[in-house]
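Sequence only, no structure available. Ideas?
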Amino acid sequence: MIKARIVVTLKNGVLDPQGKAIEGALGTLGFDGVSGVRQGKVFDVEVDGVDRAKAEADLKAMCEKLLANTVIENYAIEIA
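Reply:
I predicted one. C-alpha cells follow.
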C-alpha cells in the first residue's frame, strides 16, 4: 500500500476570498502582522499495490480529473 498526501492550492494571482477572510479574522483576534493568507485543501490517499510508478500516475490522474481545478489550482503530490 502506498500512502500519499495531495495538497491543492490556488494559483498565484487567483483571488482567495476565504484566505482574505481568515487573514481579517486573525487580525481581529490580535494576531498583528499576518498577511498573504492562502487557503487550500489536503487529501490523504492510500493506493493499493506496490508499483510506485503506477501509483504516481493514478494520483496525478485523480488530481487532473477530480481533486484539483487545474485552471485555477496547483497541486503537489507527496508519497510517503
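Residues 52-67 form the longest helix (16 residues).
Hope that gets you unstuck.
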